[in-house]
Amino acid sequence: MGNMIQLILMSVGMMVAMVLGYAALSGPSASKEGGRRLQSVRFRHSDSAMDKVEAQYRKTLAARKPRTMKIAGSGSRMEALELRLHRTGKGWTLSQYLYFSGGLALAVLVIVYLKTGAPLMALGAGVLIGGGIPHMLVSRAINKRVDNFTTRLPDALDLLVRGLRSGLPVTETLGVVASELPGPVGEEFKLVTDRIKVGRTMEDALQDTADRLNMPEFNFFCITLAIQRETGGNLAETLSNLSDVLRKRAQMKLKIKAMSSESKASAYIVGSLPFIVFALIYWINPVYLSKFFVDERLIIAGLGGLTWLGIGSFIMAKMVNFEI
């Protein structure tokens, strides 16, 4: 049995090494690189207004500082975690999150060890639940705040349009939005106006908020202001069109959510059913499944089943996840 485990580990290691080697040595696609060069030449020498606007759009994107990746990079996991906690809008601190995760992991580890007597399984369950449940709670809070923000952002843009058409400057209309709209939209625009009051430029203030939120909708707003400042034009009309686009985008998301709800429910049921059946059988007759924690053959079979279940869950998640 020891030889079988070694063979499995060697096979997995060889497969991972082959995948990493292919990813490192494959290099960029020559056809894609040629297409990028032809596109850049077309943008540089074309007289079309649409091409000029798109070229300015790409130039603005390239000039934006990727400070979110600097904050949330691999060299500073704690700053990345602090950024996630800040995006929830709940006022949770890093120490509270770590204490909750550690306490939950320790409680699960003790309970599982007292029930099964398997230290490795207890450690794995403690790490999985102690790290997974807080992460899911934070992600849920972030998604809820993001949905609230994207729902109210078109109203904020309409308010900006009315302020601009009445003759107010952009900075004043941002202050009106911060004071009139409740929820995360008003909070974020209030932070923007506060940065402008202490001497930051409007572009830098909006850039800080865009880096922290990391939302396509707000990025569209920032890029629209940057392009309008470079190329000129009617800002009120541009923001009005952007508001209409964001509303249609939200409607499309709701349609996709409704169309994929049945598939998501099926995926949740299929993915959770093995764990529910295992827990029920273990609760009714623990002796029947106790060998899964001590017998090497059953441990390997269980790990293989979990691996294939994870692959299937990943495929089902990709099938029902649509990005627009």
UniProtKB/TrEMBL annotation:
Residues 157-281 form the Type II secretion system protein GspF domain. Keywords: Cell membrane, Membrane, Transmembrane, Transmembrane helix. The chain crosses the membrane at residues 6-25, 97-114, 120-138, 265-285, 297-317. Its main location: membrane. The keyword Cell membrane applies. It is a multi-pass membrane protein. Pfam families: T2SSF. It is found in: Cell membrane. InterPro entries: T2SS_GspF_dom, T2SS_GspF_sf. PANTHER family: INTEGRAL MEMBRANE PROTEIN-RELATED, PILUS ASSEMBLY PROTEIN. This is Type II secretion system F family protein. It comes from Novosphingobium jiangmenense. The lineage of its organism: Bacteria, Pseudomonadati, Pseudomonadota, Alphaproteobacteria, Sphingomonadales.
